[in-house]
């Protein structure tokens, strides 16, 4: 493993252990087993490295979720596909709690950190298309897929927030499906 990969691994470990704001460049260099200068050489700044590590961790979560859904058998459609996807998401939260806690921490820093805002905005746009696919909504129109992905993203952030506060009281996949059906039935007529 080269210094760049070691830095990403070290930064991820520090993010999970200390969070974004409390992680220092020295913490990362120590965790990675490299010099402080390596951070500047490979990433330009500690913040750029932390952003790259966070982006990689989020992508890995999405890849793991997609694999989990594929292993469950991707033949479901409609409500069954929705419920299967949310069951997998909720199961993943226990394993990825630090990842989600970090993202909520970063929301407070976005106002004062333009590069963090840009990094989050870029990742958010990419995630919308992926979320539409993960949750089983296929559409030939990319603009529609982005809107549907934004709905799933908003729901995901809300569910994760509820889960971080009180996992025992967060909605289940069945609860979410029932709520969606109830809301959608009000749109008829």
Automatic annotation (TrEMBL):
Domain HTH tetR-type positions: 1-61
The entry's keywords: DNA-binding
InterPro entries documented for this protein: Homeodomain-like_sf, HTH-type_TetR-like_transc_reg, HTH_TetR, TetR_C_31
DNA-binding region per UniProt: 24-43
Pfam families registered for this protein in UniProt: TetR_C_31, TetR_N
A GO MF term: transcription cis-regulatory region binding
Gene3D superfamilies: Tetracycline Repressor, domain 2
Protein name per its UniProtKB record: TetR family transcriptional regulator
Protein's organism: Actinocatenispora rupis
